[in-house]
Amino acid sequence: MKRNAGVCVLALVAALASLTSCDDMNDEGANRPVIAGEALADPAVIQHESLYYLYGTAANANHYDVFVSQDGQSWEKHGTVFARDSNLLWAPDVFPDPPSGRFYLYYSLEFSAGVAVADSPLGPFVDTGILIEDAIDAHMYFEDGHYFLYYATTGEKIRTLEQMGKRIFGGMLESLFGDEESMLSSNIYVQRMRSPTETSGEAALLLQPSEPWEKGYSMWVVEAPWLLKEKNRYYLMYSGGPTHESSYAIGIATADSPLGPFHKSAQNPLLYSTSDAAVFGRKVDGPGHHSVVRENDGRYRIYFHQNASRLNLGMGRRYTARGELLIDDAGTLEVRLGDDSQLPRNHAGTRGSRHGARP
Description:
Blueprint: H1 5-17, E1 41-48, E2 51-57, E3 63-69, E4 75-83, E5 89-96, E6 103-109, E7 112-118, E8 126-132, E9 136-143, E10 146-153, H2 161-176, E11 185-195, E12 198-199, E13 204-207, E14 220-230, E15 233-240, E16 249-255, E17 263-264, H3 277-280, E18 288-294, E19 300-307, E20 318-327, E21 333-337
Parallel strand pairs: 11-14
Antiparallel strand pairs: 1-2, 2-3, 3-4, 5-6, 6-7, 7-8, 9-10, 10-11, 11-12, 11-13, 14-15, 15-16, 16-17, 18-19, 19-20, 20-21
Helix pairs in contact: 1-2
């Protein structure tokens, strides 16, 4: 389908603007930040010895800090655990490895996925190098002695924001004239692992952008995979649409195996933009790139980032928010926000623990 040229131009402006960061964060009228004053995106939360550890993408995207909490609500900053001389360091995932007792940090650096290791969730993490080229958003899942690494990739060799901008612009121009196949697209894969730092065999394709909400004006995206197992069902949670657009949202796909095949839910998206204060209490804008943890009270919590302001296009003005993830007896997922208001089921008719099953 051809797109309106004016809309495409605006989308390009949004894409380019998102490649810069802003100094301050304004959360007025928005779902409350977990950590006030911190422009923190791509939150990864783990639990270790009754404490919670939160890592995320910094506003200047050149380091990862760690925040520690006893209850998931009040957080204390414990400083930098990993840094690089680059402003393309994104999307951390920290994996507590049961066999070794060590902690593995999967990082996205200049559109490739690497891994670092530490003896404590407080770091410092020592780099072991790039694990997978042309990959981002790596997430490790472990079950019954087997390791599975999930990640997103465009399948193209992109190393800089300039290359990304040119590729997006070229694809948008061609799609304007009917060639939608040339639009830049991101897919989700799974890679079997021998260990937290060694791959085994070839990666397998799991998800591609196929739904309207996953197809933005600047690119088509499924990314930020997170695997959750509940009652012998595997939920591959992911984000769809470009991260800088308000259409960015969270979806789910289910399978009977961590290797798939995964089937997208008819309820998608699970978490999406809204400004309906009567229903939600607070605005949600562009929610995505989340993590899930089962907290001390036995409930699942979902941590995600969202835009501080719909008028701002800078990626440095995203912050981390928190809600409760509910799973009913039929296996249906729902999200309840911090104000205890529950997200309704799909508004458009299309709508944990990483170590094995919940007890």
